[in-house]
Amino acid sequence: MDYVKLGRSGLKVSRLCLGTAFRGYWNGHQDKATAMKTVFKAIEGGINFLDCANYYFGGRCETLLGETIKEMDNRDDLVVTTKVWSQIGEGVNDKGLSRFHIMREIERSLKRLQFDYVDLYLLHAFDTETNIDETLRACDDLIRQGKVRYVGACNFTAAQVVEGLWEADKGGMDRWAVLQNQYSLLHRWEVEPELLELCKRFGMGMMTYSPLAIGLLTGRFRRGHAIPSDSPWANNVERFKSFMTTETDLLIHRMQEIASLKEISTAQLAIAWLIDKDGITAPIIGPDKPEHIDELLTAVDVRLTKEERTELDSLSDWDRYSKIS
Question: Which pTM was predicted?
Answer without folding.
Answer: 0.93
